[in-house]
Amino acid sequence: MNLRKTSSRIFLNIIILLFMLIWVLPTLGLLITSFRPEEAVSNSGWWTVLNNPLKFTQFTLENYKQVLGSAGMDTAFRNSFFIAIMGTLLPVMAAAFAAFSLAKIEFKGRGLAYALIVGLLVVPLQLTFIPILKIFNILGIAGTFPGLWLVHTGYGLPFAVFMLHNFFVSLPDDLFEAAYIDGASMWTVFYRLALPLSIPALASLIIFQFLWVWNDLLVALIYLGGNRSVAPLTVRLSSLVGSYGQDWHLLTAAAFVSMIVPLIIFFSLQRYFVRGILAGSVKG
Amino acid sequence: MKKILALSTGFILLTCLLLSGSVLAQDDGKVSVMGVWGGQELEAFNKMIEPFEVATGIDVQFEGTRDLPTLLTTRLQAGNPPDVVQLTGLGMMKGHAQEGDLVDLTKVFDMDTFKKDYDQKWIDLATYNDGMYGLYISADVKSLVWYNPQAFAENGYKIPTTWDELKALTDKMIANGQTPWSIGLESGAASGWPGTDWIEDILLRTAGPEVYDKWVAHDIPWTDDRIKEAFQIFGNIARDSKQVWGGPITVLSTNFGEAANPLFDNPPKAYLHRQASFITSFIKDNNPDLEAGKDFDFFPFPPIKKELGTPVLGGADMISMMNDNEEARKFMNYLASPGAQTIWIAELGKIGVNNRINPNVYPDSITRKIAGVLSNASVFRFDGSDSMPAAIGSGAFWQGILDYVGGTSLDSVLNNIEQTADETYTTGAATD
């Protein structure tokens, strides 16, 4: 009995390992390619290094040197941080207020308001480019960071409200009633009770939103433009490649450079992440 | 949470401070430029504008994106187009000129000097409805066949000067157990374009420039026999595993930038490669040991019908102006000068179009030879797919090439393109 259990577990592990391998393979290829010289990249596939993987002379840091050494990289990093940090905090803060009131405060038209916000999830954002850009031109905030923060807040809100609402709904009403009886104001209940309880949900929302804003190329290109003084990392990296796709070997290194920050964010908030994804899935 | 709030308030303040600083700095004269250049091209562009910025104090702000048509349309609709734009084709130029988005350059340049500096063919190419809407700063010549002179010498092959000689040569190669051609059509989202150059070059040689112009303007349909013939001549090479290295599968999956590599293997996997002049930079990047003129060289794509001669197909970098202001005018005049263009073409190995450019700027004998081919060409035609509406020239035509090489029947390919052409063109005798 015990033997059968162990053998089936080994079998399961082998299958999982196999799937992981298939999953990781493209990224691994990208990683290896990013360390290969340009000439080798264009002449042979990355798997050829497996013939003698310990021959270190076939690897080079030249791609990373070129990517990190190209002009304006520090500005691009700074811009990306400005955009991503505010583009994450603003929608998460706004969504927390909105979701709390929609979940825990009784008022007329609550269901309709919630349905409208969540319904916005299906509106493709490409549809909004021209009208919003027109308004931004009138207000004079096209091509500025605050404009982009507003846009990212708008695009991020429907999902953020949806996710936090489901979490707040799952918190037991008794808890809030008890707090009200003890004389707590609505603000205190939100600030001292709801928010601390929802840290796992907030953390995973921050990860989602940060990844989306950090990796975004299109929205930044439309509202901010590719001008170097404001362009984020994604826009800067995409201009490393020529108009006919020359120098694409640099993109492999560039991909890993831009991956570093999301990876740090992910691993540092990881312990909240798994709990957060389940937020609101099972009612308390 | 208090911490987060304090932190975010701090960030708002900090960024606002930084922003106001940069906004103030930008107030003084600037010109915004939008284009598709990146990498090496962007570096060359930055080198070209450096003297201008130093001399005038005007800040040139370049926005680069490979998705230029989308971004430009959005900006135009929203009412803040760039001052100066690099348009990627004649079709695009005509479209925007028709919409009234472009500034007539005859009012920007001193036309007497301009006409001395530029051949009439470049002025004609930029003219639409009596206005000049584009400035050409450099050109690429496309009608070239690249080969490995050492491999040719070893086998005793001679440079073909007519289509019959070329045919005899490739037959001989096949008889010797070799593969004559190497073709690569893959180019990311633009896959298929190298094939369109083939069709255009062949059509210019089998049907002549008049038919070519009619075809580009959609005065004759895609299902016309002359177009069909051009596709067939291309297909006889690209779809035949004996003629092309690796057969159609390799043709479809090979990146155009790597398609010349088989010529320089030992022994060579292929012997001929038809591609524009810019391929030299790819050849040198991929094989740094090769020497231009000794290890790789070119001959003009040979004429097919004697009476039509050897026409030249080409591409060119075109700059247009969208906002008429003092800074943009100064910048356009600078770009039209031989000084600016010399920096640009010397950096990228392109061919100059300004008559005052000194031939000594060309980096090697090959580039000088190409410049000679261009200036001697009696018939010059702009890349046809660049001149067609984007839905055809950078859409259905590319897809058609891929489908045809992939094995779809020629009639269904041409019918498909013709259908899209009917929907896209607003003029043209063949438009239903």
Structural account:
Chain A is mainly α and 284 residues long. Chain A has helices at 2-34, 38-43, 62-69, 73-104, 110-119, 129-139, 145-170, 173-181, 186-197, 199-215, 218-223, 233-238, 249-268, 270-277. Chain A folds into 2 domains: 2-60, no CATH class; 67-277, MetI-like fold. Chain A has 14 helices and no strands. The model of chain A has no long low-confidence stretch (mean pLDDT 86). Chain B has 432 residues and is an alpha/beta fold. Chain B has helices spanning 2-26, 39-56, 68-78, 90-99, 111-117, 120-125, 149-155, 163-175, 193-206, 208-216, 225-238, 247-253, 279-286, 326-335, 338-348, 365-376, 384-387, 390-406, 410-424; strands at residues 30-35, 59-64, 84-87, 127-128, 131-132, 135-141, 144-147, 272-274, 297-300, 312-321, 380-382. In chain B, a hairpin with a 2-residue loop joins strand 4 and strand 5 (131-132). The longest helix of chain B has 25 residues, at 2-26. The radius of gyration of chain B is 24 Å and the shape is globular. Chains A and B meet through helix 2, helix 4, helix 6 and helix 9 of A and helix 1, helix 2, strand 2, helix 3 and helix 13 of B.
Please write out the topology.
The complex is a heterodimer of chains A (about 280) and B (about 425).
Chain A: H1 2-34, H2 38-43, H3 62-69, H4 73-104, H5 110-119, H6 129-139, H7 145-170, H8 173-181, H9 186-197, H10 199-215, H11 218-223, H12 233-238, H13 249-268, H14 270-277
Chain B: H1 2-26, E1 30-35, H2 39-56, E2 59-64, H3 68-78, E3 84-87, H4 90-99, H5 111-117, H6 120-125, E4 127-128, E5 131-132, E6 135-141, E7 144-147, H7 149-155, H8 163-175, H9 193-206, H10 208-216, H11 225-238, H12 247-253, E8 272-274, H13 279-286, E9 297-300, E10 312-321, H14 326-335, H15 338-348, H16 365-376, E11 380-382, H17 384-387, H18 390-406, H19 410-424
Parallel strand pairs in B: 1-2, 1-3, 10-11
Antiparallel strand pairs in B: 3-10, 4-5, 6-10, 7-8, 7-9
Helix pairs in contact in B: 2-15, 9-10, 9-11, 18-19
